[in-house]
Amino acid sequence: MIQIQLVLQSGLWLLFVLCGGRPGPNRLKCVSRPSTHLRTKEKNRMSTSLRHTRRDFLRFSGGLSASILAVACVTPGADTGTDDTAGEPAVEKEQILVWDQFGEDSVGVNEIVVKFNEAHPEYHVTREAQTNMRDILKTSLDAGAGPDVMYYDTGPGFAGVLARAGLLLPLDDAYEQYAWNERILPIARERASFDGVTYGIGNELEIVGTFYNERIFDEQGLAAPDTHDDFLAVCEALKAQDIIPMAWGNQNKWPAGHTFSVFSGNIAGKDNLAAAISGELAWNEPDFVESIQIPFVDMVDAGYYNTDINAVTYDDSNLLFYSGQAAMRLTGSWMVDGYTNPDNITDPVGFFFYPSIREKVIAPPAGLGSGYFVGRDAQSPEGAFAYLNFLFSDETIGDWLEGMAMIPPVRLNADDYSISDLLRFTIIEIQQNAESMGFNIDVLTPDNYNTMMFDGFQEVIGKVKTAQEQADDLEAAMQEAIERGTVMDITP
C-alpha cells in the first residue's frame, strides 16, 4: 500500500507539472475555490494565472487521486453505491490553513480545530505550528504562499507592518456580521487595529507581575511587599540566606522589555507611558531613565538576580524558580500553567504586582499575547471568519481556560470554570482593573524601537552603556519611527 501511495503521489506531481504547474514552497496546503466575501478578490491580490504552488498541486491531486483510487479499489461486479438518484458529485470542502505558535502537540488548540471541523463540514482547518513566524510570515504572504489565518503579534511592528503592506484582510465587516463587539472585549479589537481599520482579534489577555515561592517566603518569615523599599528588603533577606531573590534570563532579550514596562508604568505612570509610546513624550525624560537605572543597573549591582543574566535563557531562568534556587520571578501570566503544574514545581506559588515606587500609583503591564488575522489571499474568507468566530465562542472558552490556562478576549465568569486560583486572580484583576493597568511596551512600539530596546538593555546590563545613553537611543529610535509613520497612537 505504501508503494502504491508513493507511486501515485510521484505520478500526480509529474502530471501536475506537465499540465503547467510549478513546484512551490515546501509546505503542504490544500485550498479550494476562491471566495469574494467582504472584498473584491481581483482588486486586492496579485494575478495567479501563471503561478502555481503546492496548494494548487494538492487541490489538483486531491481530486484526481480520489478518482483514481475510487476506480482502482472497485472490483469487477462490485456495488459502486450509485443509482439513478445518486449521481451528485461530492461537495469539496473549503480548506483553511492556520499558522500559529502553540506547538504541534498543543492538545488544547488541536481540540478546538477538531471541534470546528466537526461542526462545520463545509470547511476543513489544517493547523501548522511555526516556531519562526516572525522570520517567514511576511515573505510567505508576499509570495502568495502564506496561511489563510495566522496567529501573530498585534503590535505596529508586527501585524501593523503586514496591514500597511496590504497583506491582511480588514475585519470591520466581519465584526458586524458576527456581532463580535457584543462579546469580544474592546482591547482585543483596539490592539489589532491600524490607521482606523480593524484587522484582527487579539487573544491571551495577560498581566505582568511577580510570582513568588510561598514555601520559601513562609520559611523566611517574609510577606508580599507593599512598597519598592519593602521589596528591596525582601531581596536582602533572601540573599543573606544564599537564595537567589529573583530569577532572570535575558539571553532572549525580550524579557527585559517586560521589566522596563513594569518600572515605566510604576514610575512614569500610565498616561505618560501612553504618551511616550505614541511619540508625544520623550523617552529620555528622567522618569524613563530611572526606569532603566533601577532594574538594569542598581538591582544588578546589588546582586538581586542570578549571575550571567544575558547568558541565561528565559526557560533556564524558569528552571531556577521551579527548583527553588530562586524565590521570585518577574514575568507574565502566560506562565500560570507552568507555575501551577506539579511536574514543574511542587511548592505553592503566589503573585503580587510589583509594588509602588515613591508612593506612586502602580500601573502593571496588561495586554494581549497575540492575535488572529486573515491573509489578503485567503482562499475562503468566509471560512476564515467562521473559524475566528468559533475560536471565541461558548464551545471553546473552556478549552482556552481549562485546557491551556489562557484567557480569551471575551466576557466571562471565572467561577464557571475549573481553573487555578492564580488564573482566576488574573481574570478578575483584568476585568476589574483594566482601566488602571499599563502596557507591555514592545507589543505596541515599532520594530526599530524594539530592536534598540532589546539590544540596548543587554548593553546596559553588560555595562556597555549607561541608562541615560539607552534612554537617548530609545528616543532617537522613536523619532525615526515617527518619520516612517509606524507609531501607534494609544493616547485617550
What does this structure look like?
With 492 residues, the protein is an alpha/beta fold. The chain has a domain at 206-366 and 440-484: Periplasmic binding protein-like II (D-Maltodextrin-Binding Protein, domain 2). Helices cover 45% and strands 13% of the residues. The chain is built from 21 helices and eleven strands. The protein has helices at 2-18, 41-44, 54-72, 107-119, 133-142, 159-164, 172-177, 186-190, 214-219, 228-240, 254-267, 270-277, 286-301, 314-322, 336-339, 381-391, 397-404, 421-433, 441-444, 447-461, 467-484; strands at residues 94-100, 123-129, 149-152, 193-194, 197-198, 200-213, 244-247, 326-332, 349-352, 365-374, 438-439. Strands 1, 2, 3, 6, 7, 8, 9, 10 and 11 form a nine-stranded mixed sheet that branches. A two-stranded antiparallel sheet has the order 4-5. Helix 4 links the parallel strand 1 (94-100) and strand 2. Helix 4 (107-119) runs antiparallel to helix 17. The longest helix is centred in the N-terminal third of the chain and has 19 residues, at 54-72. Mean pLDDT is 85; it is low at 1-86.
Features:
492 residues, alpha/beta, D-Maltodextrin-Binding Protein, domain 2, nine-stranded mixed beta sheet, two-stranded antiparallel sheet, 13% strand, disordered N terminus, Extracellular solute-binding protein, Bact_solute-bd_prot1, SBP
Layout of helices and strands:
Layout: H1 2-18, H2 41-44, H3 54-72, E1 94-100, H4 107-119, E2 123-129, H5 133-142, E3 149-152, H6 159-164, H7 172-177, H8 186-190, E4 193-194, E5 197-198, E6 200-213, H9 214-219, H10 228-240, E7 244-247, H11 254-267, H12 270-277, H13 286-301, H14 314-322, E8 326-332, H15 336-339, E9 349-352, E10 365-374, H16 381-391, H17 397-404, H18 421-433, E11 438-439, H19 441-444, H20 447-461, H21 467-484
Parallel strand pairs: 1-2, 1-3, 7-8, 10-11
Antiparallel strand pairs: 3-10, 4-5, 6-8, 6-9, 6-10
Helix pairs in contact: 1-3, 4-17, 11-13, 11-20, 13-21, 20-21
